[in-house]
Amino acid sequence: MPEAPRQDSRTDSPTAPTDEELRTLDAHWRAANYLAAGQIYLLANPLLTEPLRPEHIKPRLLGHWGTSPGLNLVYTHLNRVIRARELDALCIWGPGHGGPSVLANSWLEGSYSEKYPDASRDAEGMELLMRQFSFPGGVPSHVAPEVPGSIHEGGELGYSLAHAYGAALDNPDLLVACVIGDGEAETGPLAGSWHANKFLDPVHDGAVLPILHLNGYKIANPTVLARIPEEELDALLRGYGHEPIHVAGDEPATVHRAMAAAMDTALDRIAAAQRAAREDGATERPHWPVIVLRTPKGWTGPAEVDGEPVEGTWRAHQVPLSGVRDNPEHLRQLESWLRSYRPEELFDAEGRPVADVLACVPDDTRRLGATPHANGGLLVRDLPIPSLDDFAVPVDKPGTTTHEPTRVLGDLLARVMRDTADRRDFRLVGPDETASNRLQAVYGASGKAWQAGTLPVDEHLDRHGRVMEILSEHLCQGWLEGYLLTGRHGLFSCYEAFVHIVDSMVNQHIKWLRTSRRLPWRAPISSLNYLLTSHVWRQDHNGFSHQDPGFVDHVLNKSPEVVRVYLPPDANTLLSVADHALRSRDYVNVIVAGKQPCFDWLSNEEARVHCARGAGIWEWAGTEDGAEPDVVLACAGDVPTQETLAAAHLLRRYLPELSVRVVNVVDLARLLPQGEHPHGMSDFEYDGLFTTTKPVIFAYHGYPWLIHRLAYRRTGHQNLHVRGYKEAGTTTTPFDMVVRNDLDRYRLVMDVIDRVPGLAVRATAVRQRMADARTRHHAWIREHGTDLPEVAEWSWNA
Amino acid sequence: MPEAPRQDSRTDSPTAPTDEELRTLDAHWRAANYLAAGQIYLLANPLLTEPLRPEHIKPRLLGHWGTSPGLNLVYTHLNRVIRARELDALCIWGPGHGGPSVLANSWLEGSYSEKYPDASRDAEGMELLMRQFSFPGGVPSHVAPEVPGSIHEGGELGYSLAHAYGAALDNPDLLVACVIGDGEAETGPLAGSWHANKFLDPVHDGAVLPILHLNGYKIANPTVLARIPEEELDALLRGYGHEPIHVAGDEPATVHRAMAAAMDTALDRIAAAQRAAREDGATERPHWPVIVLRTPKGWTGPAEVDGEPVEGTWRAHQVPLSGVRDNPEHLRQLESWLRSYRPEELFDAEGRPVADVLACVPDDTRRLGATPHANGGLLVRDLPIPSLDDFAVPVDKPGTTTHEPTRVLGDLLARVMRDTADRRDFRLVGPDETASNRLQAVYGASGKAWQAGTLPVDEHLDRHGRVMEILSEHLCQGWLEGYLLTGRHGLFSCYEAFVHIVDSMVNQHIKWLRTSRRLPWRAPISSLNYLLTSHVWRQDHNGFSHQDPGFVDHVLNKSPEVVRVYLPPDANTLLSVADHALRSRDYVNVIVAGKQPCFDWLSNEEARVHCARGAGIWEWAGTEDGAEPDVVLACAGDVPTQETLAAAHLLRRYLPELSVRVVNVVDLARLLPQGEHPHGMSDFEYDGLFTTTKPVIFAYHGYPWLIHRLAYRRTGHQNLHVRGYKEAGTTTTPFDMVVRNDLDRYRLVMDVIDRVPGLAVRATAVRQRMADARTRHHAWIREHGTDLPEVAEWSWNA
């Protein structure tokens, strides 16, 4: 049984803050505002111990002030409730350019200096904190991996709420606050994420507290949600299943009081909902609170600059005073702005924050910048992955039996799901495709998370389920990222063509991982694993619109230290790569595998060895006699492997004197030069596999030019001839698809004949036989709508 | 002044349908249901004139029944109101697998047979209609380009409502109905699209009538919106700014009556809102109606199969009876299902629909399958593009003056915007970045569309504006696609890194165009034009997360007949390619250009010639003497061009005896072989430009391997050495970015020295000088946070 969630602390509702407490909260907020503004402007003189002079100002003013005061307010008030209620909390800072704020707060609470001792909590460290911001080689203006307490960068907007829900899943004691900017709220992914509350289990999951921050403006425009009537906004939030709590104002004392009350109300409601579900067995979906915070953009910054209103307008988005080094009036305004926070009251002579400022700061790992939930590698435990012997399919002779690879994998995933029933640290996500992708065995171990209404006809819906299905690739990806970043495991199964929907999200995750790997204090997290299935070659009823194998190309543009791509050709190799992927850390593993019946080529042990090598000769399939072969048939992907083996079979029959080598590639990065990817083969290995002089006919799963892009530096590259998907798709049969793209067995044999020099005259007749078979195919399919019997019934051992 | 929108017809509210009319509506609906089911199953015996036998059934049953009856209901009732109110209407069919329904209706109304005469409106044509569906080489199950009346394929879900709004913009007399499936409604892009009503001008735009079809299930799961309480759904829709009208039931007669009433109510409200805005000058945003339609999934199909409930469950999603050819009971059930529509009452002995069935069908181009708005090429007019002479910047000497290229383009776009003020057929879309991307001159010609609240501080907001800005790349893309597909023009300006957000959408648009181009009845539409700016090399304050030049790689995987990629190196070349793009048809043009000050290299006339060639030698920049050069410095993109020219400058100074050729590439597809892209160069041309034997140092804007992927077949490929972005990004200065990625002038000179054989010994000293400059750069930037003065102040003529 999972440990019972702790409930005591958050159910005590502390009283409203005293005036004294409000005063210290304001001190904390002012200190954070001071530090945020200082980061944008100051190179030196961080405490304003002397009058501000141009040489104290950075030569290039880069950064964004607008969102900082609001984020600082939230940080301050989260500090209060975390301390008062002894909460474990994490905050997702959604708005772009929130860096100065979160850095300021982390520095104030001390978590920053713990990670970066040079940025000590004193004047010297403060100067470094300010100087490094948006400085060449310094820290970026978003809440990047470098920022303690962050699992979400912001800047590419739209994913905060999905990340928040991912973090809250299976973290019953965790409060995940999520600040959503009103710009970000206009994006589709964010708009769709609100419905994630229909998947949040109040018993086993933590709470998400969205804080919709309406500061009214984006870069240069008002925001939609700030400019619709409040009753419309309330209806929207209620429609999303939330109970709105409003905080609005521009007078700090009033806002502090209102914000504290709103936080208390929200947390009381959350506690009540969790108590009802956990203690009283309530099953209705709670109407979780949402805080709507309206404060001016660039609040407390310059009200007017050069005669134009700035505070409370889009002009406060970036650097409100842009001419500080050259314009004495701007310099004066900046000094007066900075001094308005009364830094002398906030920091002692050594630049250390005074006790009042720190009064609200929680202890130790309760600090938002120090929570291990934002450094998930500290919490992650190895997954219990069973022996593959229990799941591998028996293969006595290659190419005789068939299995649906993803169905076989489904059995393994079901076991993992079952073996994590108590730990609850493994989830499967997918856009309504788990069963379509034939992984439904997992339902035997865990149902599908669902908190909305149910009907008797429903199957496998489960209020406590760990399979996540919603028709939104964005939400699936966001959930999984949030889950992994907080130290858990998972797999995303997706139609191959539509994983492009999350291209931009995976970019950011790869960038996050690449940066994190270089930060010694960030512990490695579990890899993001994709199973791409229902792939390009088997879109029988969907046709052209559902055919796109380009995600592999997309990820291979990214940091090689993070990206791995696997194309297992059968069930046992799929098990092997999945096993490897689920054990790995800090990678993005892309596994492409079919769900349709597929020949079994390798036994479990053979699969293990082959996948460990990543590419190898299938001796049994070729006709080599010890000398260098006449031709290499290479393949990567399940359908290309089948066509290549069928071509090898034809060659064995019709041109038995030809010495043929069959090479299968599972791990695509093996083709890259050694210096370009950790998995890249040495030239010695590559030349040994592919030869340097013989024709290589390479049948590849995706766009053929990708293979050239990987292998162009190899000696034998000019002999490499690649067949793959070339956008010749439609609604048709499996074999017709490969024929249309010239990837079929007959074409591969023709390619061999066209490229191997000095073949006997008889080869011309064989070539004609192949061409005739293609013609026969075209006629047959027009007539019958099915594939040629000789193709449909083919097997390696026939 | 634009012509006053026509208002008379839609303001008459016809009375409710009579019983007789309801009877004929039901006949139409039954006929459509019959044809939809028949398409999934029947090879022959389309009218069931003989008992159904296994040989009448398709060998592979592919297709989806679940959504069809609901879509048929909507089509039928749209027919009624179009006819009764003399509406010009278009319908977007959002749900996936809506093909059988829309094909059935188009065939019934005759628009199908007009496009495809073989599918005549008789028994023979009906057999073809049924047979071709999901048959190899036939028609796909989605509402693909092959389907008359379609501008939206469905299947990749989430874009219907955005397309609908795009179609309605500047079409004041058009009603755009939009059926949104409840699966699709879970996607982020769809969820975000509801707010498009804050951008719809009731005066100059048409109306969008969303019809949210809650049939309750996706592939294998219930849907969220069907399983939240109705008051929550109502709140959500009201929060989106809509007034919901509910229709629910499973008894056809009742539903027909309710649907007719709902349509009348909705259209009356739309007419009233338009009248108020157009005649009475009302300026408040209308609360547009939305119809919520709840009918069973697979309605009127088999209630139970093999003892399991099917109608009204997810089991009705695909083929409800799957064993028809082999299982006599399934065959019997199918026959009884098909006969339940009483085909003998619906079609005459020749298979022609009887008069009752056709009673609701509108005339001629009012038919949904015949509206020219769904075949926008019929309506498109050439854009009035002014002479570039009026906008080109003067260039007396190359590399002396600088301009911000996008700002120069902004002036041209402003003129186009102004010159289309009456026609209203040009729009600019962008995610809150028009000004950030320095195109703000357009505001002088048209403000930003905005129907939400305004404040005195706002600038350029305009209820009638044609610049569209919302922080959603999905909505921008969807709007523009809908606008183009209905025969208008536009341009999408976007941060380069974040255009990946729409990777999957552009895939579908390219696939749509590729298919459309092969359909003789589809007239060419205006191209989808991207301006990608704020690019990888100038993310000074955003850093690593905002650096991604891979969209070019993404689109170049797609159909070459559709895709064009341009990298203009300066302001005048940007004007030239933009001019070309805006005039073109049926392409996706990707233009990558910077917004930062950039040297002017070519005069207007030189730019025109250079862009027409797509790639060429810049003689003035090189040191050739007539013989073949020693080295080719090639470049593509503004920043690489600058670094290449600076490298050429250094070589001229330090190694004057070296014969250097400078080649600039604007049109990236020129590098492809002639047979692979219509713009591909012949080998003769390529070899003439790049030589076959000399080293080519290619400085490219994006991922360097893309150039290899394009050029690997060229003779001189082994001499090609490419520099580009290799994910070495951070928050830093412009020059530090190129240094980090080894694309800087000093590195390029070192590359030349490393690769040109037989250089004088002195070259070693020059190489060291370059390495020293890089070292000096590193020290300077650490100290000053700025670029070396010698770099910052460099110009070609210095």
TrEMBL record, chains A, B:
Domain of life: Bacteria
Gene Ontology molecular functions: aldehyde-lyase activity; magnesium ion binding
Biological process (GO), any one: carbohydrate metabolic process
EC class: lyase
Cofactor: thiamine diphosphate
Residue ranges of domain Xylulose 5-phosphate/Fructose 6-phosphate phosphoketolase C-terminal in the record: 595-796
Chain spans, region Disordered: 1-21
UniProt-listed Pfam families: XFP, XFP_C, XFP_N
Gene3D superfamilies in the cross-refs: 3.40.50.920, 3.40.50.970
Assigned keywords, A-Z: Lyase, Thiamine pyrophosphate
EC code(s) of this entry: 4.1.2.-
Basic and acidic residues bias (residue ranges): 1-11
Annotated ranges, domain Xylulose 5-phosphate/Fructose 6-phosphate phosphoketolase N-terminal: 18-378
Transmembrane helix among keywords: no
Annotated transmembrane regions: none
Family matches, as NCBIfam families: PRK05261.1-1, PRK05261.1-2, PRK05261.1-4, PRK05261.1-6
Family per record: Belongs to the XFP family.
Name this polypeptide is given: Probable phosphoketolase
